[in-house]
Amino acid sequence: MARARTQKVGLLRRLPLFLLIWGCVALAMWIPAIYALALDDHDTSRSFFYSGILGLFLVATIALASSNRIPRRGTLGQLAVLLACFTVLPVFLAIPFHDALGNTTFLNAYFDMVSALTTTGADLFPNPDRLTAPLHLWRALVGWMGGLLMWISAAAILAPLSLGGFEVTARGQPGRPVSGVAQSEKVDPRGRLIRVTRTLTPVYIGLTAVIWVLLLIAGENGLTAVCHAMSIMATSGISPVGGLEGAQAGITGEAILFLFMFFALSRLTFSTDTATTGYSRLDKDPEFRIGLMVVLAVATLLFLRVLAGVSEIGVQIDPLQALQVLWGMMFTVMAFLTTTGFESANWDDAQQLSGLGTPGLILMGLALIGGGVATTAGGVKLLRVFALYLNGAREIDRLIYPSSISGAGGGNRRIQSGGAFIAWIFLMLLALTLAVFNLLLAAMGSSFEQAMVLSVAALSTTGPLIELATDVPIRLIDLPGSAKITLCAAMVIGRLETLAIVALITPSLWRD
Q: Which of 202, 147, 383, 413 minimizes the C-alpha distance to 275?
């Protein structure tokens, strides 16, 4: 038994990583195939079943052809594989989607799969009736697999390379393996990846199952429950009913989703193996504390804004309505801070009650801030925000007391100096990337406001922002093909982050 297990692990380490991921995705295609068969939708079932068989055949063929080749690029090579997963793999994912839908172009199908896999959740088909139930399940499942891929990659690939937010606290340079990891990568380039996958996958599946069961108990429809459960864990915001307004679980369902969105605020909610020194407790974690502070502060400001609007038009609001409005603000703020993008059913009611428009700029700001490091959330990340705050506070103290010595601990001193510098570089790279994509989309026919919303939504991986940030929702289906391809590139860059892209195109890092 031990020998068979050793041989199995050895086979996994010899099989190219991209082929391994491709094979898992091909097997996952049989899930919507079985679901479609149960609904007597034989055409859709055949599309997914045959596509899964085709994928497994190609994987087996390429694996046999490359069986004698052993990967030698270490973690940086795995980062290149991660880039290929978000750019090349959606071509395969789009095949059954395009064939089953039948009335859209392959580019639209590819865009939708990139959006799902990067956990952006930009809805190319805003009318839920346009897609059948198996296609809704497939979109949510692809987003869920993309979230799992990022969860694993954060700990197994980005952390050893001091990327993805880890560069703020790590002592190594971004893109270079930290001390001790470089030697282990040369000896066992796949060991850490396999260990992290075995550790995190059961947790990810278990948490998704818990959300699904709780939503079913709350009275949610089966398909909606499983899609919302997968969307919350992946922070993709994909819904088969157009959002929470079409859900049946009501405020109970929203409370369940709100509770599990905390997993996107800090990695310490599910793991301590990537925690920095001094922050191994959740109540001491700066990401978690800043996240809570942002949610409470912004929700309170929005609530006061609604009260001011209600008072201005002379409408009375009773205490129960006030509580519902406050809850809607807290839930929506939490959803956009974690880049999930779900809108509370009470959010729209609050806007209509006060007669005020959607605070799109605030939602865009929340999405750009993003969630925690090593989570499925996108955005700048709360740890980088904390690093910039610490550095700013320290500089103000030095203006008042020029001869003072920082009393922060070792971890905070690291964040105040090198960590804050790297965080500032990342922020400037993000601003530059945002400006580039804004100009490109404007050159392709979008207005300045639309280009800005599209760029922020793609780079922060918060697709629902496209429908909520403007008074008139932007119809992605009407964008030209060049704009869709540009948005695909922006979603991939936003998912991997600009520092990882810079590391991939730096020749000196590949020579090390």
A: 383
